[in-house]
Specification:
7 strands, 8 helices, 57% helix, alpha+beta
């Protein structure tokens, strides 16, 4: 790729000198030679701005040679009668070198700045990851340590119900830790492209139904409303991944909204895409609506259950794998709607009916 750009610069040098020579012939009858020289100078500047020093110097040399041969008396030779044109040639070459140096310096500074920004963003993500892990894993670790310590020190003196309660708390917190780590690993696999969607035709209603069935227990304390028309067109997706994305939205609603509040699932067609929406009443601050799908972003809302802030980011990554978009909006009555889209493709042709053949 670098070599291709290298040779492209020299091709531009030849083309620019040739174009300026043609322009000079068109101008010769009405313009002085100094104006024709300015056309060559413009070519030198343009090539110097776009390409490295080599093509810029070649442009200057070719421009000097073409200008001298075609226009400087005696024309048709490379000799120069008037010494002032030697100054013009020197200026052309100097301009090429100076501009190339300036452009190269700007490019180096831009590359260094980009590297610093990448390093800063990497450090920000690393810090956010460490902060999220340390914050979100501290509580389950403390619970597990306390429960296991109680069992180890005085388990014999406890009644079976107390021992079972402590064992259940250890298991529940271990499961939470496992879920946190699994989300981190899943987000990493999505970002490096290790997950490839296995697409097939699927019904939106079946995907929604499967996600609701899997999270039935988590949503049991909420008022669930489902609005999924049965006549929606099929979508060509990896149904398990899309179900997982929708499940993350439902799990987000279950974790971050009070018991007894409404969680509404909608699906509708909009032009050539299906829009899936989960509405809840978690109370996300307006300033967080635009960032809620970012990695490690929790938002300014009191959480009923901690998390590493990856569930919605994983949802968006899965949706993008399918060519869709994910975003959030605030509802007029104070809730939040989480949307994502799936493109509608032309359905496959139906196989011929054996009875008609």
């Amino acid at each position: 790729m670098h070599m291709g750009r290298h040779w492209t610069g020299y091709a531009w040098a030849v083309a620019a000198a040739a174009a300026c020579t043609l322009a000079g012939f068109a101008m010769r009858a009405r313009f002085d030679l100094v104006n024709i020289a300015m056309v060559y100078m413009l070519a030198v500047v343009v090539v110097a701005l776009r390409f490295p020093r080599g093509p810029a110097v070649v442009t200057a040399v070719l421009s000097v040679a073409a200008f001298d041969y075609a226009f400087v008396p005696p024309s048709g030779t490379l000799s120069v009668e008037d010494a002032q044109y030697l100054l013009t040639f020197t200026i052309m070459l100097a301009v090429a070198l100076v501009i190339s140096r300036l452009v190269e310096s700007v490019r180096q500074r831009a590359a260094a700045q980009a590297a610093l920004e990448v390093e800063a963003e990497t450090e920000r993500i690393r810090s956010a990851l460490l902060a999220s892990i340390s914050h979100d894993l501290r509580t389950p670790l403390a619970v597990m340590a306390g429960a296991s310590s109680s069992l180890a020190e005085s388990g014999e003196r406890m009644d079976p119900q107390q021992r079972r309660a402590l064992a259940v708390s250890v298991f529940a917190e271990a499961q939470r830790m496992s879920d946190h780590v699994a989300k981190i690993l899943e987000m990493t696999r999505l970002e490096i492209g290790a997950i490839k969607p296995q697409r097939d035709w699927a019904a939106v209603a079946e995907i929604v139904g499967s996600a609701l069935l899997r999270l039935e227990g988590r949503l049991s304390k909420h008022r669930l409303l489902v609005d999924v028309p049965g006549d929606l067109p099929l979508v060509r997706v990896d149904a398990s991944l899309v179900e997982h994305a929708l499940g993350n939205l439902l799990e987000n609603a279950a974790n971050h909204t009070p018991a007894g509040t409404i969680v509404r699932v909608r699906a509708q067609r909009r032009d050539q895409e299906i829009v899936l929406t989960v509405e809840d009443y978690g109370g996300i601050a307006e300033r967080d609506v635009e960032r809620v799908f970012e990695k490690f972003h929790h938002g300014a809302v009191e959480r009923s259950e901690a998390g590493v802030g990856l569930g919605l980011a994983i949802c968006r990554a899965i949706v993008r794998l399918h060519g869709g978009q994910a975003w959030a909006t605030q509802l007029a009555d104070g809730g939040t709607a989480f949307h994502f889209t799936l493109p509608i493709e032309a359905p496959p042709p139906l196989p011929p009916d054996p009875a008609t053949t």
